[in-house]
Structures are given as structure tokens and as C-alpha cells.
């Protein structure tokens, strides 16, 4: 069974002003992602990449079509059940979205606190994650004291805290220099290989897709216009 299965998904945002045009952000997308894959989603700004990802973790509701996560149709779920689905999906962002007032430890603790994980279990989990991302010595540092690459490693640890089966990475290396980008990509490869987590990586950086993904989906104006193995779809620069 595929981990993610989208069938004829559409998402229309109503016009912001009366008489304005509705925005058809996603216009009939079929997408299947198998467990264990790393799939890249590429396309110009406005192509619908972020909306696609927000439909997968149910931060947006679909206008029509079906979204199945692990075989479960999520478009008809109630808020309480959606929270459960979202616990199985981690997300990392371009601007990291960390709490500045919290330490590294406190940032990773956050999703575990929200999920109601008991303190002992929480502490064990955070300690394991800090070692996994190579930040054991930074547990008590404040986020502002960290480099961009370290911040994204905290973001990754936080995204993994609830043991998700899927990680969504939205432009997660776009704010980083080339060297730091390589470090973060190496960590994401380990997340996939060692933890068996499926990754969907949205980016406008073709090099990121080339070095990380096995399969790529090209979006244009709300549709998938091309899809296949990276080496086949993306010719050399
Ligand atoms: P990408 O991530 O590829 O840059 P987006 O998914 O952000 O593309 O946007 C696709 C289209 O949907 C754009 O035209 C964008 O302006 C529009 N859009 C995205 N989110 C909203 C929203 N919340 N309200 C109205 N329009 C939106
Ligand atoms: P805050 O988020 O309130 O600023 P911290 O981020 O330092 O505080 O820590 C959040 C929670 O995790 C607190 O309850 C703290 O006691 C606990 N904690 C922090 N570091 C450790 C650690 N190394 N081992 C066990 N518990 C810790």
C-alpha cells in the first residue's frame, strides 16, 4: 500500500475580493509515494508545491479529490482524527520555525509535550534525537546562538520527535550556504536510510533534488507536468 496516494486532487482558493478571480492552486493532481522513497517536488514559484504539501498534512482542506495517508482517507476526517494523522508526519521549513525563547532541548520537547508524552519517555527521546542529529553538546543552547545548519538540525530533530513515517521538507535548505546544505542533505539521507522515513522534498534547487531524491515530480500551474527517475527527468545543467 502506498504511503501517500492523491487522486484527482483540486484546491481552489476563493478570490480575495468580490469580483476577483479564484486561484486554482492545484488542478487535478494524481501522486503516489511509496514507503521508503525520497521524492523531490520541483517547480517555479506559484506552481502549487507548498499547497500540495499542506494538503498532504491536512493543513489545508481539498476542494475535491482523495488524499490517502497509509491507506486512510484524510479528506473526510474530523479535527481530532486529523491531529493523529499529523503526528505521523514531520515537517521542516526554510526559516526553521523554531521557538526563539526556548533552548534546543525545549524546541525538540515541544511536539512531545503537545502529544502528551510522559516526561521520562520524552527526555529519553530528546536525548536520542540530539545524538542522532549531532547536537548533544548544544542541548541547553538558545536557538539564536546556533548557526543556520545547526538550527535546521534542531528542526529535523523536532520533526522526528513523534516518530513520523513521513517527513515533508519545504525549501529546507534554501536559506543555507552550499556547504551547510550538503550537511543537511547528508542528515536527511540518514533519516531515510537508518530510520526508514519516507521524505518528500519541495525545492526550487535542482541540485538538491539531484543529490537527494530518487524520483522527481515537476509541477507547473497546479499540475504535475512530468514525473520519473531523477536522472531521466532532470538532464545535466
Ligand atoms: P509554490 O509553493 O509552488 O510557490 P504555492 O502552493 O505557494 O506555490 O501557491 C500556488 C498558488 O496558490 C499561487 O498562485 C498562490 O498565490 C496561491 N495561494 C497559495 N496559498 C494561498 C492562500 N492561502 N490563499 C490564496 N491563494 C493562495
Ligand atoms: P524552556 O523551554 O522552559 O526554556 P528548556 O528548553 O531548557 O526550558 O527545557 C524544557 C523542559 O525540558 C524543562 O522541563 C526542563 O526541565 C527539561 N530539560 C531540559 N534539559 C534537560 C536535560 N538535559 N535532561 C532532562 N530534562 C531536561
Automatic annotation (TrEMBL):
UniProt keywords (A-Z) are: Amino-acid transport, ATP-binding, Cell membrane, Membrane, Nucleotide-binding, Translocase, Transport
Q: Which GO terms describe its cellular component?
A: plasma membrane
Which residues does the UniProt record annotate as the domain ABC transporter? 4-237
Q: How does it assemble?
A: Homodimer. Forms a membrane-associated complex with FtsX.
Similarity field:
Belongs to the ABC transporter superfamily.
- Role noted for this protein: Part of the ABC transporter FtsEX involved in cellular division. Has ATPase activity.
This protein is called D-methionine transport system ATP-binding protein
Indicate the span of the full protein covered. Answer: 1 to 237 of 343
Amino acid at each position: 500500500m502506498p504511503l501517500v496516494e492523491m487522486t484527482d486532487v483540486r484546491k481552489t482558493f476563493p478570490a480575495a475580493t468580490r469580483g476577483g478571480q479564484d486561484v486554482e492552486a492545484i488542478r487535478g493532481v494524481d501522486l503516489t509515494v511509496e514507503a521508503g522513497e525520497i521524492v523531490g517536488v520541483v517547480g517555479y514559484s506559484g506552481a502549487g508545491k507548498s499547497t500540495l504539501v499542506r494538503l498532504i498534512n491536512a493543513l489545508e482542506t481539498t476542494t475535491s479529490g482523495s488524499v490517502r495517508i497509509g491507506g486512510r482517507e484524510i479528506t473526510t476526517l474530523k479535527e481530532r482524527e486529523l491531529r493523529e494523522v499529523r503526528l505521523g508526519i514531520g515537517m521542516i521549513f526554510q526559516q526553521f520555525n523554531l521557538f526563539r525563547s526556548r533552548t534546543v532541548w525545549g524546541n525538540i520537547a515541544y511536539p512531545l509535550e503537545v502529544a502528551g508524552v510522559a516526561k521520562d519517555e520524552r527526555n529519553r527521546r530528546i536525548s536520542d534525537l540530539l545524538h542522532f542529529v549531532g547536537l548533544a553538546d548544544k542541548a541547553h543552547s538558545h536557538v539564536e546562538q546556533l548557526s543556520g545548519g545547526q538550527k535546521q538540525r534542531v528542526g529535523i530533530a523536532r520533526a522526528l520527535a513523534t516518530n513520523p513515517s513521513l517527513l515533508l521538507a519545504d525549501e529546507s535548505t534554501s536559506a543555507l550556504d552550499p556547504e551547510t546544505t550538503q550537511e543537511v542533505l547528508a542528515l536527511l539521507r540518514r533519516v531515510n536510510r537508518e530510520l526508514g522515513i519516507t521524505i518528500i522534498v519541495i525545492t526550487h534547487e535542482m541540485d538538491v533534488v539531484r543529490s537527494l531524491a530518487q524520483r522527481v515530480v515537476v509541477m507547473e500551474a497546479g499540475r504535475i507536468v512530468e514525473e520519473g527517475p531523477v536522472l531521466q527527468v532532470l538532464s545535466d545543467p
